Amino acid sequence: MDAVILAAGLGTRLRPYTLQIPKPLLLVQGRPILDWGLAALPEEVDRVIVVVHYLADQIRHYLSTQSHFQQWCAVEQEHPRGTGDALRVCQKQIRSKKFLVLNGDDLFGAADLKKLAQTPAGVLVHPVADPKQFGIVFPGDDGTLQRLEEKPDLAGRHLANTGAYVFPQSVFDIDIGLSRRGEYEITDYLAALARREPVSVVQADFWLPIGTIEAWQNAQHRDLRPLVTSQRCA
User: Fold this and answer.
1) Which positions of the chain have pLDDT values less than 70?
2) Which one, of 32, 39, 62, lies nearest residue 50 by Cα?
3) Residue 233's pLDDT is what?
4) What are the C-alpha distances in Å from 204 to residues 55, 149, 233?
5) For residue 13, which of 233, 153, 210 has the smallest C-alpha distance?
6) Residue 30's pLDDT is what?
7) What is the structure's pLDDT at 229?
8) N or C: the chain end with fewer CB closer than 10 Å?
9) C-alpha angle 33/59/223, rounded to 5°?
């Protein structure tokens, strides 16, 4: 099974720290964020495709020295136009019938990615207390995705989209347009796929988004044992 890691972003909310280092290579407890991500991938994944753009040579160098995967490639997103575009530039490189996709700058639990990888199509979610800050997933009674809403004006705990997915190859048959932000959004692929076939909503026990300097600093003191599989230890 292939895994696509989205690692092309500028990391503007973590400046000045990301002026010289791409966000996926910022250290958390002595290891790059991307290294934690590779270690958390399930054993079904035998090949990774990393989408790069900003300070791409640094990420390529890291990939050439990491020991988690022998099979890897870096795909350049020449003109960053959103996460949907980042997914699309990988199409020719993806070989498996279904594939895992995750943000390269968040921390995911290994057991959660394992559960996600076992679905034909799925999205990983985690409860949050501040839904106005996240994309929110609304599952139906059968546990499949019914709708997505970006930063809704809601109170109370809701299920946030963590940015980890399983897509079938057929997702590339879907045409999506530009969003209001002028980008192609991976969530538009997800929503369109859910209208065609069941997309499982998988609840995570661990998720640590590194979206701000404060979140990055807090990660230095968290228990990160849930991130590492027995197959891919540091």
Assistant:
1) 229-234
2) 62
3) 47
4) 31, 19, 21
5) 210
6) 93
7) 62
8) C
9) 10
Q: Per-residue pLDDT tens for 148-182? A: 999 988 888 999 999 999 999 999 999 998 888 87
Kindly report the pTM of this predicted structure: 0.93
User: What dotted CATH number matches 2-223?
Assistant: 3.90.550.10
Q: Which phi and psi angles does 114 have, rounded to 5°?
A: -60, -45
Angle at CA 200, nearest 5°, toward 198 and 205? Answer: 175
- The amino acid occupying position 51 is V
**Residue 107 CB burial class (10 angstroms; 0-12, 13-18, ≥19):** buried
Handedness of CA 74, 2, 65, 37 (dihedral sign): positive
Three-state SS string across the chain, please?
A: CEEEEEECCCCHHHCCCCCCCCHHHCEECCEEHHHHHHHHCCCCCCEEEEEECCCHHHHHHHHHHCCCCCCEEEEECCCCCCHHHHHHCCHHHCCCCEEEEEECCEEECHHHHHHHHCCCCEEEEEEECCHHHCEEEEECCCCEEEEEEECCCCCCCEEEEEEEEEEEHHHHHCCCCCCCCCCCCHHHHHHHHHHHCCCEEEECCCEEECCCHHHHHHHCCCCCHHHCCCCCCC
For residues 195 and 187, the answer to whether their CB atoms sit within 8 Å is no
What angle, 0 to 180 degrees and rounded to 10, lies between the N-to-C axes of helices 33-40 and 110-117?
A: 50
